[in-house]
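Justification of computing resources. Each target in the renewal requires a structure prediction run like the one illustrated here; the chain below, 218 residues long, is used simply to show the kind of job we budget for.
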Amino acid sequence: MAGLLMSMVWTTMLNRLRPALAKVVTPVGRTLARTGVTPNVITVVGTAGVVAGALGFYPRGELFWGTIVITAFVLFDMFDGAVARITGKTGPWGAFLDSTMDRVADAAIFSGLILWFTGAGNNALLAWLALYCLVSGVVISYAKARAEGLGLTCDVGIAERAERLIISLVGAGLYGLGVPYALHTALVVLAVLGTITVAQRFHTVYAQTRAAAERVGR
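Resulting structure tokens:
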């Protein structure tokens, strides 16, 4: 239960700290913008750091230090949007790159866990849970992208990427510190929330398409 409780605490804290974070991100983004760094560079460097931390530490069972490295680069990646707004370098390419790199980072995190639990970690249950969380996360993102591509809205879901990321990292970090069942709990919670989120998005899109079909039939 420790992993679940800590994940809930961190998620609640994130929601409350978002306004304060925005006040911090903007000045730092302004400083980064003055150095000439582009938002796309921040995106790529942040993703590369997450991938390095996940695949460099997690497969060796160093879950705590891997989580520290990943968290540092996830926080760094937050500045790309601020730099884009300040420099006026917003556009379709940057949005596409950012979303795609998020998928790469998420895949690296769960792949690192899967490699550990199918190797020296020797835990088939957690390996399967991590795989399920990886797949459900991809489906969640694809469902939204596909819906928007069809001109529909799909901004629903009990577990957005930020919440899923916090739960997985807190669970992995606590497990790396020796907290029993922290990662087990986190992955189970993620699997449940991911399934619910997929169902919510399917329902939302279905409702919109059905309403449109009924209007046409009148």
